[in-house]
Amino acid sequence: MARILAYTSPARGHLFPLIPILQELQSRGHQIFIRTLSTEVMRTRTLGFDAKSIDARIESIGLLDWKESNPRAALSSSVATFVKRSAIEVPDLRSAIDEVHPDFLIVDTNTWGAQAVAEKWGNSWASFCPYPIPLSSNDAPPFGFGLPPARGPLGHLRDKLLSPLMVGTIERTTLPPYNSIRKSLGLAELATADDLFFTPPLLLVLTAEPFEYPRSDWPPNITLVGPCDWDPDLEEPEWLSRVDRPIVLVTTSSEYQADETLVRTALKALESEDLFVVVTVPSTDPKHFEVPANARVEKFISHGAILNRAACAITHGGMGATQKALARGVPVCVVPFGRDQFEVARRVEVSGAGSRLPAKRLTPERLRAKVYEAMGRTEGARKIADAFSTAGGPVAASDAIERMLRN
């Protein structure tokens, strides 16, 4: 059996979807080593993984994109963060490889320096992407604006005109410093932003069509396996059994992005409804909120336990939280604040699995209406749940990895 080393960015939204894949590989007899954010090392050790933290300097370089006023500026800020981290990832992953002597590497798509090391390493490796992949396509709109798929000549003209705005931002801010890292490792320079996704021999994308826009031009190295759902706490809260109303789950980002207004608006919007509201605020203190009688605000709680009884989920548009709800057939009302969330929100709307409300239009009245609109789209959510199940999840991902190990 193989020694498999996984390397993640300092984000729970990237670690948690990877865990079910690692658990499946472990169940097949493979030995799992992982380098991840320091606060999750002990938790991953309890799963039987040989876990250590990534370099503390990587974790100290936080995302500040939430401070920006528009998607392009926010994207530039995120890219700058990933580039700064990349230079530290190079010696960090090299050290881990020297220590573990792995047979296979699994590298987070947001760890660009680690991906360059994996490519230079020369043995079998894969990357994974837990959010809508920002890869150019003839069949999908340019990434970042949250646009619906093009219809007719005017729609395709729109895509042609807007694509350079986002792609150009990525290429101007990413490629020069990243190519410098690649050159130092003796690797060829990348010519386009899309090349970031062509270099892994296997790229596991943790979603599935039709939630992801169907494409006729998927590269051969990409495998869509659907979402991989994992909760760190599987116990139901003791108060849940006493809730006798339909439940609405409200999620906010695990990486701070100033989305507290979503919580306050949701509590206000639904305080007089015959619903019970459960809010999770992993990056904020729950004591900051006035909580009505029909609600609870928690730092963290098992989303799965709540979603098994939920009528709707209000999410910030994080891919993990949104797909976790849809995988259970729970419709979603998405209020995107930044990052990939505009893309997630639009996919929810286009797939008929829920509703979308831009954060700039967020009011209690509009949110209440959008929640009930989403509740009317249970059939669409169930269709997405069926598609996710068919994609295979951790089993499909592990099968793809083992095919590489055999070759």
Give descriptors for this structure:
407 residues; alpha/beta; Rossmann fold; 2 domains; seven-stranded parallel sheet; six-stranded parallel sheet; 14 helices
Short description:
With 407 residues, this protein is of the alpha/beta class. Helix content is 43%, strand content 14%.
Name the CATH superfamily assignment of the largest domain.
Glycogen Phosphorylase B
Give the termini distance in whole angstroms.
14 Å
The class by helix and strand makeup works out as alpha/beta
Sheet with the most strands?
7 strands, parallel
* Strand element count: 13
CATH architecture of the largest domain: 3-Layer(aba) Sandwich
CATH topology of the largest domain: Rossmann fold
| Backbone CA Rg | 21 Å
Q: Describe the global form.
A: globular
Give the neighbour order of strands across the main sheet.
3-2-1-4-5-6-7
| Annotation field: number of helices | 14
